[in-house]
Automatic annotation (TrEMBL):
Residue ranges of every copy of the SIS domain listed in the record: 27-170
Matching SUPFAM superfamilies: SIS domain
Protein name, per record: 6-phospho-3-hexuloisomerase
Keywords: Isomerase
Source organism of this protein record: Lentibacillus halodurans
Pfam families: SIS (PF01380)
Length: 183
């Protein structure tokens, strides 16, 4: 079991080494400058998006998740963070088109630059990881389906939140105070 765990970590490190730092920094800057942040993804990508939104909320950002009942309309000055391994998820493509028509920016996390969402995006981080539709010969994985993409997205988006907040004094205490206390 431990051997499998270490192999997964090795794979994730290899994927992370392929990421373009300049694109991550630009993406992070757009998130930081947005009036409001909207996050959209389906399935497990949606779960990774919700995790990102929760971290941003705890850090004091004005953030919403597409599909929740309290999500307002997107407007100019806002950004949509779209997460789609294939870059062609129909509902996310529809959300991106609406966001673009409303004057909002589109930030994409995907494996597919040359995709429908890739053509709509203002900024994009390409994660060279396996999805359920695409396997990378140069980055083989022992993991099924899109596990490698999902895990890489989670770590990347957590790193972005850390980068956005690391200069803030007592950020852990601040985020802890923002955490749900209705348990």
């Amino acid at each position: 079991m431990k051997k499998i765990h270490l192999k997964i970590l090795e794979e994730l490190k290899h994927v992370g080494e392929q990421l373009e730092n300049a694109k991550i920094e630009s993406f992070s800057s757009k998130v930081n400058q947005a009036n409001r942040i909207f996050v959209a993804g389906e399935g497990r990508s949606g779960l990774m998006g919700k995790t990102f939104a929760m971290r941003l909320l705890h850090a004091g950002y004005n953030v919403f998740v597409k599909g929740e009942t309290i999500t307002p309309s997107i407007q100019e000055g806002d950004v949509l963070v779209a997460i789609s391994g294939s870059g062609n998820t129909a509902s996310i493509r529809s959300n991106a088109k609406q966001a673009k028509n409303s004057g909002a920016g589109i930030l994409l996390v995907t494996t597919a630059e040359n995709s429908d969402l890739g053509r709509l995006a203002d900024e994009m981080i390409r994660i060279p990881a396996a999805t359920k539709y695409r396997r990378h010969e140069e980055l083989p994985t022992i993991q099924p389906m899109g596990n490698q993409f999902d895990q890489s997205v989670h770590i990347l988006l957590d790193a972005i939140v850390i980068a956005l907040t690391q200069s803030r004094e007592n950020i852990n205490d601040y985020m802890k105070e923002q955490h749900d206390n209705l348990d």
